[in-house]
UniProtKB/TrEMBL annotation:
It is a single-pass type II membrane protein. It comes from Methyloradius palustris. Belongs to the ExbD/TolR family. This is Biopolymer transporter ExbD. It holds the Pfam family ExbD. Involved in the TonB-dependent energy-dependent transport of various receptor-bound substrates. The chain crosses the membrane at residues 20-39. InterPro entries: ExbD (IPR003400). GO terms for biological process: protein transport. The accessory proteins ExbB and ExbD seem to form a complex with TonB. The lineage of its organism: Bacteria, Pseudomonadati, Pseudomonadota, Betaproteobacteria, Nitrosomonadales.
Length: 135
């Protein structure tokens, strides 16, 4: 005996059944809750008490700036492009772990900035950050 309804039987059901998805997510949640404490493989030891130590503060980075006219400054002191390498080399000799920040006006000729970067490289400085402004 066949039952029939007034609706057309060829229609596709367009609803998403999320019950299996919820079941899988709950199983995964329980699995992570059970295994999370086991992920800590540290050996528990009683550490000795010592006096507090303060690590040295990192050295303030040196800023090399190139303004719109192409003048080069090292920490607000103007240097000619030809004397920049000697100044940077002396700073690097005083602090081999020197960090340098390079900033330049966006209207500066690329060649000027490239010459400054070449001077920085020849001075032996390897830690260089090029500063930009966020949009």
């Amino acid at each position: 005996m066949a039952f029939s309804s007034n609706t057309d039987g060829d229609e596709v059901l367009s609803e998403i059944n999320i019950t299996p998805l919820v079941d899988v997510m709950l199983v995964l949640l329980v699995a992570f809750i059970v295994t999370a404490p086991l992920l800590n493989n540290a050996v528990h030891v009683n550490l000795p008490k010592t006096a507090a130590t303060h690590p040295p503060e990192p050295a303030k980075p040196v800023t090399v700036s190139v303004n719109a006219e192409g003048k080069v400054y090292v920490d607000k002191t103007e240097y000619p492009l030809t004397g920049l390498e000697l100044e940077l080399k002396s700073l690097h000799d005083a602090n081999p772990d020197l960090t340098l920040h390079l900033s330049s006006d966006e209207s500066v000729n690329y060649g000027t900035v490239a010459k400054v970067m070449a001077s920085i490289e020849r001075a032996g400085i390897t830690k260089l950050a090029v500063l930009t402004q966020a949009d």
